[in-house]
Amino acid sequence: MSGQGLSTEEVAGIREAVAAGRKPKVVFTASAGQIAGQVGQVVALTDPEVSDEFVVVRFGRDELPFSPVDVAVAPRGAGRKVPPAEEPAAEPVVAPEPEFVLGTPPPAARAVGEDASARPVESAKPARRAAKPVKAAKAKGPAGLTVTLAYAEGEWTVAAQQGAKVLAKPYVVKPAEALRMVGLVDVSGVQEAVEQILAAERTQAEQQAEQLRSELAEVEARLAELREAG
C-alpha cells in the first residue's frame, strides 16, 4: 500500500474519470487513521482552493471528504471479496481478562486436563497496543458555489456552478448590470478595470455613431441631388 497519497497527475486523472461518470477505487493510507488499507470509491472532487480535503470518497454508506495524502490509487483487484481462510482451532487456554491489559503479562495458564506437575503452557502474549484512533469525520457541508462574471469579445457573461454541477451556463448581461455586480466586490483595481472597459466601449460606440451620421448625411445629400434632377 502506497503511503505517499495521490500525485498531481493522479488527481487530474481521477477528476477526468469522475467527470466521465466513473468511480475510481482508492485505498486509504496510514494518514487516514484506523481505516488504512481499506478500499473506497471516489464519487466527487470539490474545489481544492476551498478545502484541502476535496476528495470525496464513498466508504460503506458514508461519503466523506479526504485530502490527497489520505488516499492512494488502489492496485488492480483491490476491494474484491475473497473467502476467508479456515482458521486453525485455538488451543484451549484460560483467556486473560480484560482483553487489553497494560503492564506485566498475566501468569502462565495451564492446559485443560493437565495435572499440576505438567509443564505450564506458554505465557499469554502481551496485550496489543491500542489501535490508532479513527480519524474524526467532518460533517459534510454543501458543495462550494462559484459565480463567474466574465468579459470577452465585447460581451459580459455570468455563469454559476456548485461543486461539479453546472447551475447556469454563461449568459449575456448588460454592461450596467456587470458594473453593479462588480460594485459588490470590494477589491482594489477590479472596479477601475471594469470602468476602463466600459469607457473604451463607449468611445467605440460614439465613433461608430459619428461614422453612421456622416454616411447618412452623404446619402441624404445624394438623394436631394436626385430629387432636384428629377
What does this 3D model show about the protein?
The protein contains three helices and eight strands; from the N terminus they run αββββββββαα. The chain starts with 7 loop residues before the first helix and ends with a helix. β3 and β4 (62-66) form a beta hairpin. It has 230 residues and is of the alpha+beta class. A five-stranded antiparallel sheet has the order 4-3-2-1-5. 11% of the residues are buried. It has helices spanning 8-19, 175-183, 190-229, and strands at 25-28, 39-45, 55-59, 62-66, 71-73, 145-152, 155-162, 165-173. Among the domains are: 8-73, Roll (SH3 type barrels); 143-173, no CATH class; 175-230, no CATH class. α2 (175-183) packs antiparallel against α3. Mean pLDDT is 77; it is low at 97-105, 108-114 and 120-131.
Layout of helices and strands, plus pairs?
Layout: H1 8-19, E1 25-28, E2 39-45, E3 55-59, E4 62-66, E5 71-73, E6 145-152, E7 155-162, E8 165-173, H2 175-183, H3 190-229
Antiparallel strand pairs: 1-2, 1-5, 2-3, 3-4, 6-7, 7-8
Proportion in β-strands: 15-25%
CATH topology of the domain at 8-73: SH3 type barrels
- Give a count of the beta strands, DSSP E runs of length 2 or more: 8
Order of helices and strands: HEEEEEEEEHH
CATH architecture of the domain at 8-73: Roll
Secondary-structure content class: alpha+beta
Radius of gyration over alpha carbons? 36 Å
Between the first and last Cα atoms, what is the distance in angstroms?
96 Å
Q: Average pLDDT, to the nearest integer?
A: 77
Order of strands across the biggest sheet?
4-3-2-1-5
Task: Identify low-pLDDT runs.
Answer: 97-105, 108-114, 120-131
Overall CATH class of the domain at 8-73: Mainly Beta
Number of helices: 3
Helix content: 25-40%
> Largest sheet, if any?
5 strands, antiparallel
The shape is elongated
